[in-house]
Each structure stands twice: as C-alpha cells, then as structure tokens.
Design a protein that fits this description.
- By secondary structure, this protein is of the alpha/beta class.
- Helices cover 26% and strands 22% of the residues.
- The chain has eight helices and 15 strands.
- The chain is globular.
- It starts with 7 loop residues before the first strand and ends with a helix.
C-alpha cells in the first residue's frame, strides 16, 4: 500500500500536548487544513484508529429521517460518524438552503420567493448547530453562494474541521479568490473530470469510489492531497479503499460505516 503522508499534528487534551502516532488513522482535519507544509493543528481528532467517517447527506440510508435535514445529521453523529456531507443551493430569494435537488415539494428552488416557505434548513442553521460537534463536508451545488458561505463560516467557524466541496471547478476557483484559506475539495465522478485536479486550488480530491485505483491514490498522495471517497455502502469496499490509502469515506449507511471501523 502506498504510504500516506501524515502531517505533523498537535492537539490539546486535558491541557497536555500529546503527540499523535504517525499512522493513517491519526489524520484529522481543522479549518487550517492542509497548508502547503502539511502542518495541521487539531483540537478534536477522532478517537478511533480508522479513516474519517462521514454520513452522506446525514444518515441517508435510515428511513426514519429525511436526508439533508438536521434530524439526519444528528442521527449520523449518534451512529458514531465524525461528521457528514450536505448539499447547499441558492433559493430564488437568495438564501443558502440545504437541498440536493433544485426541484423541491413541486417547486423549483432556484425560482422560489420569500413567500414560498419550503421548511428547508439553511446553511447558517447547520453551522450554528454543528460547528463544535462534527467535521463538515459542505457541498456547493451551484454558483453564487460564495459571499454567504464566507460570512457564515466567519460567524460560525467549524471547530472540528471542514471542507467546501463541489463538482464545479469555477465555484472552487471563485471561492479561493474570495478567501484563499478556505479548504477546498473537487468532487469527481468521471475520469475526464478527475483530470482537472492538478490545476485547481484544492487540498482534497473526492472521487466516486468506482473511479478510484491504486495508482490514482499513489499519485494523489505524492501530490500531497487528502483523499475522501463516496458513496461507499458495502463493508468489503470500505476496507479495500482504506487499505489502498484513502483518508476518509462517505457513506449512506452510517451504521455499517461505523461498525466496519470501530
């Protein structure tokens, strides 16, 4: 297996500085994630010895809650995940709302007015609730969210790490130009799109598990990138990808994900 480059990490626990062993499971993320010299300062790393465990849209596989809701995010954490991924869109009235699709409750979200109440969570609400509880993978589905995102992160800075991710290279470039310190990740589900990562200002590469190869992981590690992968819903694949060298796994099945690595 390719050797993962593990950053030097410091954390405070009971007012003592405790060195973290240089093992794959020791890696965790902070809002100062992945500076060029690979030095991280971490307040609350995961205590398990495996990858970063993230629920996809919360606990998406659980039928008791709707995806991309506060209830779903809370359930992912209760299952034992380190955090969760969620989707952000821009409503017609200019609000940063949490939704995977533009079509919601029979309405086109991007054309809704302030008078059309969809009862969807908003970005600031999620950050306020979970900034001190979870690693956050904030996926931007559309352009135009940069100003609200920067303001929201300033008001509720994630204390347990985060990344702002997107399929859209232009969104990542625009956000980097707005505030270069924000950790960014490019999401890829095709090999053509995957070829873009060397030219983007990203510290994370987030390929779909179906396009991950051992050689790709070696190349990404050699370039100093952190690797998350999605959406992995079977135990064998979770273990194989961790063995290959990924740093984090995103899954619909949060209970299986946690059982596999705890």
């Amino acid at each position: 297996m390719a050797q993962r480059r593990i950053p030097t990490v410091e954390r405070t626990h009971r007012r003592r500085q405790i060195p973290i062993a240089e093992t794959p499971g020791a890696l965790f993320f902070h809002r100062s994630l992945l500076s060029k010299n690979w030095t991280l300062k971490v307040e609350s790393p995961p205590m398990h010895g495996g990858p970063l465990l993230l629920g996809h849209r919360g606990a998406r596989a659980s039928r008791s809650v709707a995806e991309n809701t506060l209830a779903s995010f809370q359930l992912a954490l209760e299952h034992g995940c380190d955090g969760f991924e969620f989707d952000v869109r821009l409503s017609g009235s200019g609000r940063a709302v949490i939704s995977h699709d533009d079509q919601v409750q029979g309405l086109t979200l991007s054309r809704t007015t302030r008078d059309q109440q969809l009862n969807l969570p908003i970005l600031r609400q999620v950050l306020k609730h979970y900034a001190d509880q979870a690693f956050l993978d904030i996926e931007l589905k559309v352009p135009g969210l940069e100003s609200e995102l920067v303001l929201s992160l300033s008001r509720y800075p994630p204390e347990r790490g985060y990344v702002v991710s997107s399929f859209l290279p232009d969104v990542l470039v625009a956000l980097h130009e707005r505030k270069a310190s924000i950790p960014l990740g490019i999401i890829c589900d095709t090999r053509k799109q995957l070829k873009l990562w060397p030219d983007l200002p990203v510290s994370m590469v987030i390929p779909h598990h179906s396009i991950l190869t051992k050689q790709l992981i070696k190349d990404l590690l050699r370039a100093g990138k952190t690797i998350l992968t999605w959406t992995v819903n079977d135990k064998r694949s979770m273990l194989r990808l961790w063995d290959w060298g990924v740093h984090g796994i995103i899954s619909d099945d949060t209970e299986l994900l946690v059982r596999t690595f705890r």
